[in-house]
Amino acid sequence: GNDPAPEAVYQSERYGNSTYIIPNLLPSSEYVVRLHFCELYWSSSGKRVFDVVINGTTVIDNIDLYSVTGAKLKAYIEEFTVTADASGEIEIEFITITNNATIGGIEVLSATPNNSPTIVTGASVTPDPVTDTIASLSVLADDDQGESNLTYTWVANGPSPVNFSANGTNDAKN
Predict the structure, then answer these.
(1) Quick check: pTM over 0.70?
(2) What is the pLDDT of residues 17-45, one digit of tens each?
(3) Quick count: other Cβ atoms within 10 Å of Cβ 66?
(4) Read out DSSP for 67-96?
């Protein structure tokens, strides 16, 4: 959504031509890039105009923050869904047309929800049947964020025979 960042994000800026390379992302995965702007200096239209380019594509062309917001010192947010390159990077460029491009804040969020792991192999108990005071229950799962072969194991050790049952769900990451 267009929820504003904390006020401090809009109270300072980096101005002029600049390039940010966001590293260490999952290659070829989608991300949401939120750009936070605020006109801190000019009090009329046409004084600051600039472009924003993400991964070589112009996503904002000739923006004039004062014209868009109608005021100085007013937060403005643009949001884009972009794909990290094969190296796991997103490149964001701010290119001056008139009087210095500006940026107050950049957010990069995963566009993929982090769902609970899914069960690959149902629960199994050792020994089966449980006849002693020690038993373990194991479940094999995969996670949507790239982790596979997650094994969850529960072990019970009791003074009397233990009892396990599998319910078939796993919300361990929520």
Answers:
(1) no
(2) 999 999 999 999 999 999 999 999 999 99
(3) 20
(4) HHHSSTT-EEEEEEEEE--TTS-EEEEEEE
* Residue 165 C-beta-side C-alpha neighbours within 13 Å: 1
Q: What would you report as the CA-atom Rg of the chain, rounded to the nearest whole angstrom?
A: 25
59/6 Cα distance (integer angstroms): 24
**Residue indicated by tokens 């047309």:** 97
CA distance 23 to 87: 8
C-alpha span between 43 and 125 (Å, rounded): 71
The structure tokens 């923050």 sit at: 65
Residue written as token pair 């600049």: 18
CB 77, CB 34: distance < 8 Å: yes
Contacts of 112 by beta carbon, 8 Å cutoff, 6+ apart: 29, 30, 144, 145
Read off the tokens for 1: 């959504």
